[in-house]
Each structure stands twice: as structure tokens, then as C-alpha cells.
Design goal:
The protein has 352 residues and is of the alpha/beta class. It contains ten helices and 17 strands. The strands form three sheets. A nine-stranded mixed sheet has the order 16-15-14-13-9-12-11-10-17, covered by helices on one side. It has a six-stranded parallel sheet with strand order 5-4-1-6-7-8, sandwiched between helices. A two-stranded antiparallel ribbon has the order 2-3.
Length: 352
């Protein structure tokens, strides 16, 4: 069983720990949290005691601890790169919450360092582990939807309404282009998973209602390398929504929330709906990470896809400052797709 240290015990750090164990007892079979790294141990001592976590106040000390096999980073976005690089130097496996990094060059260097060290670095794109998402991918691969022409995605929520200027998540430096690093990046990853590499983006982002240093309303037009288009929107000051839709020449399919998948064929009057049982995707992603660390199946999000996702994010952030033109995705995030990605969309041509 992989012994992990959670780095950061804020709301999301506690969510990751709680997904994997209860009062220190593992829920799954492959991973348990044994340590936590925090700046203020008195603040978290009761939680740590309840979850049987030994506390470190120094990240480097945790990396030197022989009783820790891997670190799980639930820290501010701007810290990810340095923390990943330190872990690769110590040859500790790393699970990092999205976004992988904030800058494309950092993403590329982190991936290279992980490969050189022979360790697993996994990014927490948990929606990959939804059965509805996996079935949507199967519909595309099997040709059930026909030639894919367009995708749409929206991931929004109300959490920005609770932000104030003292919170790191409420700063433009940590959360550029509004909800992109918190929510929109999940839609970008879904687009990459379903449609392959993205070549161009055009974004608009604005702060309309929140009294903090971040945008609250962001929208993006995208172009896949195979020619299809896509649209993404993310808002941080409205009711929660997750929606992902793929349009093809034979049918469209739509995820509504995490557990509903609609399919509407051209020759049908109404959509057919499949409802899935709830899945703990945080437990699923962390157990998959643990298996990859122990020589099992490769983690669902490859390093190439993770780097490409940050290249797309960087292009969106840049475009949001110049919303009147299309911006090319950096070739530093160039991703050589698998044979599946090259052939899944017959009849489509590359954008010029």
C-alpha cells in the first residue's frame, strides 16, 4: 500500500484524505495517507489525530522521510512547479491537483524531470474517472456519433461569491482568466481526452460582479488540430453546473452533471438517457495513481496530455488579454497523439 503525505490540509486537502480513509483506516486497497505537511500544526492537530496523520511543518523534511512513498499536493497553484521539482529530485512520486503548473515552460520542465527520475507524476483531472465520461469517449471511438464537428462544455459554480481579497484563490495571479484554473481546466482536459490536441483559442474574461482581484465570467472558442471546433465557458458566481456535449454527423451526446448521459440520434425524435450510480472520483484517481506507482497501469492522464493542457491554458490566459484574435497553442506543449486520435475523425481536415 502506497504511503502518502498530503501537502496542504485546506478544504480540498481534507477532501482528498477523506476520500481515501476514515479515522486512518483505508477505504480502498492501494493507498493511505500517513503524514501531512502544514504550516500551522496547531490548526490541524485535531484533524490529523482523527485521521492518524503524523505532521510535518517542512516540505523538504517530508521528502527526506523514508516512511513516505509519495506526496499529494493540494497547495496554491503557483507552488506546484517548485514542489514537483523538489519531489522529483528526492525521487518521490507526486500527485498534484490541477492545474499541473501555471506556465507552459514549467510544465515541460516538470515532465522532463519526472521522466529522468523515473517517478510517476499524476495530475488530478478527476472527471476522467467518471463512467459517463468514459462511455462518451467510447461513443466517439466506435463511430456511434459519426464525424465529430463540435464540442461544448460548461463548468460553473458559486464558490467565488464566498471569496474575499485575503484568499489566495481570489487573486488573479493564482487564478488567471477567472475560473479556468479551478474549473475550466477540467473542460480543457475533457476536450483533450475526447478530441485530441487543440491548436487555437480565442478567449474573453471579465470581472462583472465579484469585488476581488479575479474575473468571474470566462468564455473560450477553441479549434482542434483535426479541424473540429469547441466552446468552453466557466463562471464562478452562479449556480453549480457541469455540462459536456459532443456533436457528430450521426448523433449528439451530452453529459448533464456527472451521472447523466443523453444520446440523441438523427433518426430519433427524443434523446435516450442513461443514469449512472455515483462514483467517488477522488478515491478513483488516487487509487489509480497508487497502482501506477507500484508498477500497474499507466495513470489516465499522460504527461504529454498534462503539458498540452497547460499549453492550452496558457494560450487562453494570453488571449483573454487580447480577445479580438485567435491565439495559437504553444508548440512547447506539442503533443504527438496516438493512432486513435489521428483517425477518430474521418473526413476532417486541419485548420490553416
Amino acid at each position: 500500500m502506497l504511503r502518502c503525505a498530503i501537502v496542504g490540509l485546506g478544504r480540498w486537502g481534507q477532501r482528498l484524505v477523506g476520500a481515501c480513509q476514515a479515522q486512518g483506516e483505508p477505504i480502498g486497497t492501494d493507498l493511505r495517507f500517513t503524514h501531512a505537511v502544514v504550516r500551522s500544526p496547531d490548526k490541524y492537530k485535531d484533524y490529523a489525530a482523527d485521521q492518524c496523520l503524523a505532521l510535518h511543518t517542512d516540505y523538504q523534511a517530508a521528502l527526506s522521510d523514508a516512511e513516505i512513498d509519495a506526496v499529494v499536493l493540494a497547495t496554491p497553484h503557483s507552488q506546484h512547479f517548485d514542489q514537483i521539482m523538489a519531489a522529483t529530485e528526492a525521487r518521490k512520486h507526486v500527485f498534484v491537483e490541477k492545474p499541473f503548473t501555471l506556465e507552459i515552460e514549467h510544465a515541460r520542465l516538470a515532465a522532463e524531470s519526472a521522466r529522468a527520475a523515473g517517478i510517476v507524476v499524476a495530475v488530478g483531472h478527476n472527471r476522467r474517472f467518471l463512467p459517463a465520461m468514459q462511455d462518451l469517449r467510447s461513443m466517439i471511438d466506435s463511430g456511434q456519433l459519426g464525424t465529430v464537428m463540435h464540442m461544448e462544455g460548461n463548468f460553473s459554480g458559486p464558490f467565488g461569491l464566498g471569496y474575499d481579497r485575503t484568499m489566495w484563490r481570489a487573486s488573479a495571479a493564482e487564478s488567471p482568466a477567472g475560473g479556468m484554473t479551478a474549473m475550466g481546466i477540467h473542460i480543457v482536459d475533457a476536450f483533450i481526452y475526447l478530441g485530441g490536441p487543440i491548436s487555437k483559442v480565442s478567449a474573453q474574461s471579465a470581472g462583472l460582479v465579484l469585488d476581488v482581484d479575479m474575473d468571474d465570467t470566462t468564455s473560450v472558442m477553441l479549434r482542434f488540430e483535426h479541424g473540429a471546433s469547441a466552446y468552453l465557458s466557466t463562471l464562478v458566481a452562479t449556480a453549480r453546473q457541469w455540462r459536456l456535449q459532443v456533436f457528430g454527423t450521426k448523433a449528439w451526446a451530452q453529459m448533464r452533471d456527472h451521472h447523466i448521459l443523453d444520446l440523441c440520434r438523427i433518426d430519433q425524435q427524443e434523446a435516450v438517457t442513461k443514469t449512472y450510480r455515483a462514483t467517488d472520483i477522488e478515491l478513483a484517481e488516487l487509487e489509480a495513481f497508487a497502482r501506477a506507482c507500484q508498477g500497474g497501469a499507466e495513470y489516465a492522464v499522460t504527461l504529454e496530455e498534462a503539458v498540452h493542457g497547460i499549453a492550452v491554458q496558457a494560450a487562453i490566459i494570453e488571449s483573454a488579454t487580447k480577445p479580438d484574435k485567435m491565439h495559437s497553442v504553444s508548440r512547447q506543449g506539442q503533443w504527438q497523439p496516438t493512432a486513435r486520435s489521428k483517425t477518430a475523425f474521418p473526413g476532417q481536415v486541419n485548420d490553416d
